[in-house]
Amino acid sequence: MKKRIGIIGAGPAGLTAAYLLAKNGNEVVVFEADPRYVGGISRTEKYKGFLFDIGGHRFFSKSTEVNAFWQELLGPDLLECKRSSSIYYNRTFFSYPLVLSEVIRKLGVITSLRCFVSYIKAKLFPVKNPVSFEDWVVNNFGRLLFEIFFKSYTEKVWGIPTSKISADWAAQRIKGLSIRTIIRNAVKKDNDKIIKTLIDSFHYPRFGPGMMWEVCAQRSIAMGARVCMNTTVRSLHYHEANSSWSVSFADDTTQNGFHHIISSAPIYDLIPGIYPRVQPTALEAAKSLHYRDFITVVLILKNATTFTENWIYIHEPSVKVGRIQNFKTWSKQMVPDQTMDCYGLEYFCFEGDGMWNMEDDKLIALATKELLSLKLVKKEQVEDGYVVRQAKAYPVYDHAYKEKIHVIREELKKYENLHLVGRNGMHKYNNQDHSIMTAMYAVKNILAGEIKYDPWKVNQDAEYIEEEQQQDGGRLSPASL
């Protein structure tokens, strides 16, 4: 039976679901708050012909389903890129992932020996049952390497001490990374077993990640889906008599008769808008979730060839910038004039704080000053600037987040036709392929008419996904959907 499905958010998860559901003949309506761009945090913004990302977006997955989906959408416009990134520490570039021989050479013999002793101590006397990011990294690298290469940057990103960040974040984002895996990877690479943070190549759309989602939206529309831009969902109303949903919007209009709702909206925003009201414990859990927000200051430069990496992590406490992207190294088409360069300086903040509220011209001046202080460019090379703010860029993994999500999930079990997907939709700090997989699982459940796949079991490891699919008797692929 043809179903009517409402999708909140036109990011990777929402548009993946829209495409696959429309492909199967369903009535699909996507609601996107942004007036101009699809893709969510994976969009590509434009300024005077320059293209730039909101953060960096590598297209890499061990999932054959996700790779097939990307190829189906972009084909030859999905370029293969050599991964190149560095850590900038003590006015020196260190390759990232770390190369031990380089670390020893650049840190010096004495500091390197201290790092080795610190590592051995951590192996002999590890923190039992690590609960924080700090515990996890110290166990795997030793305290001194943690303080040099992890602490400063991580605290810039999250705005809280590393001792207050859940070990889940490290286990999810840098799972398997250790001195041992770095050495093993340096000796012999195996792309089927390599962890994501160690990959040395990836795909990237010719005109930035937003190209993928613009094409996905266009093809979804061609198959009958509607993508409503500048449309902010205010509330969801569940009708128990026929298990349908109504969606109300900020302009006081309402659309009725949805058999399913797929939401990639932040849980913080979604749960308070569900009627009848959820239980007070679930409402309080949603309202107490935390997010980290994000500003990209784009600087347009003339012949700025100081670094040729895709991005560099700034482990320098004297500046506020956390990471710098070099967009031309992702794809030359990101820059309209090849004598020009386009850098994205990333600042992590909380919505409403001093950084977030700073005027654009002052942010551009700050970014220019910090780029000069790092000696990455000369003053005369900076020609223009542009600012983009991204609210709720990162769901925060504090020590209490897991219990809050558990309470919310238990409450939402009574709605089998409400499907949470994506990074903010599930409060999971994931990559694009992770978000896409959660959407694929939701679509599979809708098409089957029952819950056969659990999107919450999607993690960063594609081997886990493959194992789940084999146990369920088959893979989930765009072609099969």
UniProtKB/TrEMBL annotation:
This is NAD(P)/FAD-dependent oxidoreductase. NCBIfam families: PRK07208.1-1, PRK07208.1-4. PANTHER family: UDP-GALACTOPYRANOSE MUTASE (PTHR21197). One of its GO terms (cellular component) is cytosol. The lineage of its organism: Bacteria, Pseudomonadati, Bacteroidota, Chitinophagia, Chitinophagales. Transmembrane segments: none annotated. One of its GO terms (molecular function) is flavin adenine dinucleotide binding. Pfam families: NAD_binding_8.
